[in-house]
Amino acid sequence: MEALDSSMDKKNLLDMLAYLLWEESTARELSEYHIKFGKRLYKEILAELKIQASYWQNTSPSRFDFGTLNVGCQDLGNLYSLEKRLEMLERRLAERE
Hints:
Elements: H1 7-22, H2 24-27, H3 32-58, H4 66-96
């Protein structure tokens, strides 16, 4: 199996993890260990995406053409929504306890 190098692969994996943790029917089948593991994996992948997104925040905008600027803004927007989803997942899991 190839390594998860692309941001899209990582986002797809986060989508799957979020689904498993969110849906009550699947979450009920997971042990506490698996839930903690899923949250930790989500956070680790999210941290990698933050490192990748730091390029957009640490590079002068004058170096980008318009298309590159749009890609950078989409990456930052996706990162924001992935962080918010993690917050909601953690709240939902806490409510189940």
